[in-house]
Structures are given as structure tokens and as C-alpha cells.
Amino acid sequence: MPYAKIANGTVVQVLDHLDGVIHPALHGGYTEVISSVKEGMTTQDGQSFAWPETAAPDPVEPVAPRVLPKLVFFQRLTTAERVGIRTAGKTDPVVEDWLAMLDLIENVHLDAEDVTASLGYFVNNGLIDANRVPEILA
Questions:
Q1: 21/66 Cα distance (integer angstroms)
Q2: Kind of pairing between the strands at 30-32 and 3-7
Q3: Angle between helix 93-103 and 113-124 (nearest 10)
Q4: Per-residue confidence (pLDDT) for residue 70, from 0 to 100
Q5: From CA 51, how far away is CA 57, in angstroms rounded?
Q6: pTM
Q7: Interatomic CA distance for residues 24 and 30, integer angstroms
Q8: In the prediction, which pLDDT does 54 show?
């Protein structure tokens, strides 16, 4: 029969035998148990053992994608910003490409890398103020 050391109601060690493994003065800290007892099991009485109940994990709330219809996205830009971007699109191939890509979609995904990169490009080229980016992406 194996022996278990139990601390605070939890099996912390299971040994096949005590003689020759631990000092005889420590034998009193071990309880003879059935062979199915394993480390980590719990007991209330030292006779019956079970695996501790685990709490169900907190439910994870899915994060909804932040998507706006194209019109609503453009309404977040000021008139001056929209005009500046459209004007730049006539001479700047990067802005022209961004506008062309927008023509192909119905919705703007605010967290999409191309959206955030484009806004960064607009900031770097003076088309929008850096302080406006959080407002536009809010």
C-alpha cells in the first residue's frame, strides 16, 4: 500500500513505501492510502480522496470587430481633411491607391493595418493632425 503526505487537505506526496525512503521519525506524517491516490487530490477525512473541483474559467467576451460603413468613416474626417486627402490623391500615388481601395469596399475596418498605416501616412504628409487619429479611430 502507498503512503501519502497530506497538507491542508491536499495530497502533496505519495510514496510506494516509507522504509528506506524517509527517516522513521517522519513516518507519522504519512497516511496509508489506496493505490489510486495521486498528488494533488484532496481529502476531508484522510480516507476518501478526489480531484479538486476547478472553477469554470471566466467567459471571454468576444471582441466585436470595429467596422464602419464607408460613409460613416468619411464623416469622421473634417471637410478640410477630406478635401486635402482627395486633392493629394491627384498627385500622390499612395493616397490615390488608398482612395481607389476604398472605392472597392463597403465597410472600413478601423483596426485593419492598412487603415492605421494610411492614417499615419496622412499625418506624416500633413493631411491630418496626429491628435485627430484617436478621434477618427474611436
A1: 62
A2: antiparallel
A3: 140
A4: 94
A5: 17
A6: 0.55
A7: 11
A8: 77
